[in-house]
Amino acid sequence: MLLQQFIEELKGRGVYRVTAYYSAGAWVLLQVADVVFPALELPEWSITAVLVVAAVGFPIALVLAWMFDLTPEGVVEAHPVAAETGPHPWSRSHIIEFTLIIVLALLVGYLYLERLADQASATRPADAGPTSQATSIAVMPFVNMSDVADMEYLGDGLAEEILNLLAKLNELNVAARTSSFYFKGKDADIQTIGEHLGVEHVLEGSVRHHGNRVRVTAQLIKASDGFHLWSETYDRDLSDLFKVQDEIARKVVESLHILLPSANRGVISTKTNVDPAAYDYYLQGRAYLRSPRDASNYRIAVDLFEKAARASPKFADAYAGLCDGLLGLYAIDLDQENFTAAEAACHRALTLDRRAASVYIALGNLYRTSGQYEKAVDEFNMALSLNPGFADAYVGLGDTYLEADQADKAEPQYQRAIDLQPKYWHALMRMGNYLFRTGRMEEAIPYYMRISELMPESESAFNNLGAARFIVGDFELASAAWHRSLELAPSDVAYSNLATSLYFLGRFDEALTLYHKAVELAPDRFEIWGNLGDAYRHSEHGVEMAEPMYANAIKLAKKRLEINESDAETLSYVGHYHASIGQRAEALSYIDRAMALAPGSIYVNYNCATALAALGEPEQAVEALERALQAGYPLHIVLADANLENLRELPSFNALTANGD
Q1: What CATH number is associated with residue 187?
Q2: In terms of domains, do 210 and 99 share one?
Q3: Do 174 and 138 touch, CB atoms closer than 8 A?
Q4: Pairing mode, if any, of strands 201-210 and 173-174?
Q5: What domain range is 58 assigned to?
Q6: Same domain, 98 and 171
Q7: Given pLDDT bands bounded at 50, 70 and 90, which one contains residue 519?
Q8: Rounded distance, CA 361 to CA 349, Å?
Q9: Can you give the pLDDT at residue 118?
Q10: Are residues 76 and 106 in the same domain?
Q11: Is 369:331 a contact under the CB 8 Å cutoff?
Q12: Residue 360 within any structural domain of the chain
């Protein structure tokens, strides 16, 4: 009879009715929040807040329904319901009623648990990210089939936007754009592309533009055998490109049989309330960012992104592009105004779209460059919370830890990026550079060789391979790699490296010619001006010709230090330049600052050694040199460096170099 009385109390006090109404109302409220909150540009946590409030309110509503009744006279205290003589407590009607209560409670619990699971999936930590075994895909540039060659940006831009949509999904491992776009215009079949990028599937297509109409053809192909999993042709107005890229992304997900949690189903869609002209400006701007990285291309890109933002002030991608363009300019000219404007553009993009992982990466790089390492780490981790498979975020973390003199934390980040995308050349390059900078040159060589195999037309891969070969003493192989780099694309770095090899051979006049070619290509690189100073100083021209070169190097280096005063390597270079022209007080000041920031850095110690040697402090120079050698600096380079000439008669120097310590 107790069970019968309890059920009667539930019915009489309206608990059944409140349970049903509350469950239905909470479900509707969550659905509305899912749709309306993103449109109002409210932050991600606002939906979670609604979920929590609804969950907390459910038991409160049941307790209030039990304790109070709503009557025409107002809210009154509920009174016990008198027991009625009726059927047995386990009669059919009571069993049905009790079952309904259990089902309603389970339904509410399921709704909340599902939402919580979706929220957790959307913000899971970086170490829970996908592995390289996840379904993988590369998105190739869409071929321009238009009669006008200038429309090439349309196909490239469409492919890049589809790639960005798919990259937001934790369930997919998407090859980085810099890898897939490498094959643009190259005669490579799908199987070769799949092998080089390490992906199972390839999405390719074409775009034909005529007037206000556009025809987009897309096809999803299995890389191993060339089998077409899906293909479609879209004939649309140019203003419908947003919808086309969304439809293609959804078709890819469907064709690969990827199951998405409900929280991720809206990720592969873009807002369509963007002016078509703004989108066109945006795609053109992206094309210039993909062009050679010089100031002219960055300025044009910035202008186009600004036009896009003016046409559609709430277009988040336009501000993200503006951020990237201004960052590129800042990297070249080190202008504080470009730094400030880039930061503002990044934050504006995030205000409009909190799920833009690429913008968090841009901000991370901005803060890393300016020496705000803790902020940089926070931004990269935020990107990984949105997409744990974002290899570039791990690369950014590695770069940040390396520059913050926390090299032990850097290597695992680079390795994580390589584990996610084993054939991503940028991650391989950063790992090679890390090993090179930390004195493990022999270990760096296989990474550079791997890149040259994956990207045989990459001048930077051959240039870095040459540098590593040179440092370990393989001068002939180093020269061959550098000449190959110059054959592929003349660059300031390759000219500078070749010049440096001649410098260490004592052929200073020949080195000067190549350093001047490097300066012509990169007039803002202080390191090349400093190298010119070294070459002039030890040539027949002497310090008189070297001094203006060092002065220009100091001027350019100080521009970098205005942004990042914690850049220990740059500080040590400036110390060397001041010392080389006899400015003792300035040299010692920079040396002390550099050593305080990075006492274990291989290059900081070496630069301090050359500076102290120039200042006539031989014993201190040998001590700094010993630290550099212990950290991995090559002995044969030390023996060939004219900057250390005045140490060669010292017993301590001879003892150090004789033992190879």
Answers
A1: 3.40.50.10070
A2: no
A3: yes
A4: unpaired
A5: 2-122
A6: no
A7: very high
A8: 12
A9: 46
A10: yes
A11: yes
A12: no
Residue-wise pLDDT tens digits, 182-199? 888 777 888 888 888 888
64 and 116 co-located in one domain? yes
Of 69, 91, 122, the domain-final residue: 122
Closest CA to 157 of 146, 135, 142: 142
* Residue 97: both structure tokens together: 């009623």
Collect all residues with Cβ–Cβ distance below 8 Å to 316 and sequence separation of at least 6.
Answer: 349, 350, 352, 353, 356, 359
Same domain, 6 and 45: yes
Q: Provide the pLDDT for residue 240.
A: 80
What is the distance between the alpha carbons of residues 608 and 612, in angstroms, rounded to a whole number? 6
Give which of 466, 471, 501, 513 is closest to 487, Cα–Cα: 466
Query: Is the alpha carbon torsion for 459, 461, 463, 469 positive or negative?
Result: negative
State the DSSP code for 140.
Answer: P
- pLDDT digits over 377-421, tens only? 999 999 888 878 788 899 999 999 998 889 889 999 999 999 888
- Residue 592: pLDDT over 90: yes
Query: And the tokens for 249?
Result: 């992304």
- Contact present, 370 and 363 (Cβ < 8 Å): no
- Please say which residue of 207, 230, 261 terminates a domain: 261
CB–CB of 447/435 below 8 Å? yes
Q: How far apart are CA 534 and CA 616, in angstroms?
A: 17
Report the alpha-carbon distance of residue 495 to residue 514 in Å, rounded.
6
Report the DSSP pairing between strands 143-144 and 213-222.
Answer: unpaired
CA distance 88 to 494: 93
In angstroms, the first-to-last Cα distance of the chain is: 91
Per the structure, how many domains does the chain have?
2
Based on the fold, state whether residues 96 and 168 are members of the same structural domain: no
Burial of 635 (0-12, 13-18, 19+ CB in 10 A): middle
| Residue 385 Rama label (left phi>0; alpha psi -120 to 50; beta) | alpha
Q: Are 416 and 397 a contacting pair, CB within 8 Å?
A: no
State the chain's mean pLDDT as an integer.
Answer: 81
At residue 101, the pLDDT reads 58
CA distance 65 to 82: 17
Q: Is the same domain home to 175 and 200?
A: yes
Residue-wise pLDDT for 597-637, tens only, equals 999 899 999 999 999 999 999 999 999 999 999 988 888 88
In a domain, 583, yes or no: no
- Does residue 500 fall inside a structural domain? no
pTM greater than 0.70 (yes/no): no
* Torsion angles phi and psi, residue 203, rounded to 5: -105, 120
Q: Which two tokens stand for residue 121?
A: 């999936």
Would you say residue 26 lies in a domain? Answer: yes
